[in-house]
């Protein structure tokens, strides 16, 4: 971190919780003005304007590159300062952002997984801030986390979801890949240390890229669950040009071992270091 006083101070208690548990609740990260702007951005992004059809899950990424409100939040809000505090880092890059929407009555859950195996990077200084833009509870599909699961270092094999909350197929990596087999966490739920939080609009959950998490369907008959996630990295993270499950976020201008600094992965913090 630089010597500049952050606009949003993460308490030592919450920093310790993030490091030990792999996930922490951060209240009031986005004020009412930002929340209003981000809700409008999500509603613009979630549906293809040409067809009126909801966009596919992986299509709702890198929104900041085309939407001024998402870009403004990434570059002008305290979000990157918060990431720097959580990672105890003096530099933060954007990896990508992503829009999440679960409409009322959406039955399918999001299966248990961790995020880092899906991404073309190596290193563990990676944090997501998932900002709630509606009140969120378990009934509306609130995120659940397996406490401390990031400390195992396991990179669980990526998969394609089947649309009903299950796994349709696993990523076809090399035979000698370094992925760990994905356990049936749901079947083992009763024996797991699972943590979740009810959120108000503007609250965020910060979680490590190796923390195992999932979400139930939105069982509420009328309430939407809109969220905006910003994935950010610290200075120790490097690009990895091998096969990546999420092809929408690869950067063909980088090679394995390169720092992320680029137009696609810009420096968010400190502002003076932006390319």
Percent of residues in β-strands: 15-25%
Largest sheet strand order:
1-10-5-12-2-14
Fourth-tier CATH superfamily name:
q2cbj1_9rhob like domain
CATH class: Mainly Beta
Helix/sheet category: alpha+beta
Number of strands: 14
Major pleated sheet: 6 strands, antiparallel
Gap between N and C termini, in Å? 18 Å
CATH topology: Jelly Rolls
Helix content: 10-25%
pLDDT under 50 segments (min length 5)?
A: none
Helices and strands, in order, run as HEHHHEEEEEEEEEEEEE
How many structurally independent domains?
A: 1
- What general form does the structure show? globular
| Secondary-structure arrangement, i.e. CATH architecture | Sandwich
Taking all residues together, what is the mean pLDDT?
91
- The rounded Rg comes to 18 Å
- SS field, number of helical segments: 4
């Amino acid at each position: 971190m630089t010597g500049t006083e952050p606009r949003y101070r993460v308490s030592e208690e919450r920093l310790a919780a993030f490091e030990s548990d792999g996930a922490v609740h951060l209240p009031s990260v986005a004020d009412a003005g930002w929340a209003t702007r981000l809700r409008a951005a999500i509603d613009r992004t979630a549906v293809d304007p040409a067809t009126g059809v909801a966009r596919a899950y992986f299509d709702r990424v890198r929104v900041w590159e085309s939407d001024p409100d998402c870009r403004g939040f990434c570059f002008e809000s305290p979000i990157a300062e918060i990431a720097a505090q959580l990672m105890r880092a003096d530099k933060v890059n954007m990896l990508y952002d992503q829009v999440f929407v679960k409409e009322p009555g959406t039955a399918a859950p999001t299966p248990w997984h961790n995020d880092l195996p899906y991404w073309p990077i190596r290193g563990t200084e990676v944090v997501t801030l998932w900002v709630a833009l509606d009140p969120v509870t378990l009934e509306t599909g609130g995120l659940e986390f397996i406490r401390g699961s990031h400390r195992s270092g396991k990179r669980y094999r990526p998969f394609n979801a089947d649309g009903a909350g299950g796994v349709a197929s696993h990523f076809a990596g090399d035979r000698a890949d370094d992925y760990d087999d994905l356990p049936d966490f749901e079947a083992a739920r009763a024996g797991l240390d699972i943590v979740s939080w009810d959120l108000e609009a503007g609250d965020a959950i910060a979680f490590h890229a190796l923390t195992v998490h999932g979400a139930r369907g939105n069982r509420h008959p009328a309430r939407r669950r809109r969220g905006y996630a910003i994935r950010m990295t610290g200075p120790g993270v490097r690009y990895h040009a091998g096969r990546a499950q999420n092809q929408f976020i690869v950067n063909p201008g980088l090679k394995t071992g390169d720092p992320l600094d680029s137009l696609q992965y810009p420096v968010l913090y400190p502002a003076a270091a932006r390319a």
